[in-house]
Amino acid sequence: MRTSDAGLRTALVALVGLSIGCRGSRLEGGRLTAEAGGGPGNDAAVATELDAAPPPDDAIPSSSGEELSARARHLLEAIARNDAQLATDILFPRDGWLTTRDVSDPGKDWEKRVARPFQRAIRAMGRRHPGLDRARFVSLEMAHPMTQETARHHAWRKPLWTIRECRLTFVVDGRTHAMSIREMTAWRGAWYVTRLM
What is the pLDDT of residue 193? Predict the structure, then answer.
């Protein structure tokens, strides 16, 4: 059986099981198996497993929230300490770049367009803003409007969303400061820095 046929068979078995109301059933190795004690409580477990799938690549994430704020705090700390490794969670992921860029060598392209410029920008921003070792994060303000990028050759393979000129606001010794983040791009339900400066 070809791989695509096996995947189709698995999906059909799961759909048949759900459509006939198999409570307490589980999909294992392409087979639908029943579990003892099936009932309404197991429906929640199945729903949770289905919800665990990642959002689509082009999902529009929230422009606020604790998760995004935590990653923005990491960015401020990385700039203060001149250590880009502290903010890798806000940098557009390499694996996301590999799947969304239409270039001959997306790994090399990620290094050239995302990783190395991010490291240089971290150093430069730290020099421009003295006293960041005493900085207290306030907010990350997402600029508007969002723009959906056009899928095209040598660029995005998918129409991802971008926001330009976001503001990272912080306080140093009682005075409020802000620095601009040039571009953030949405991927799988989260915002990531694609260009810091």
Answer: 97
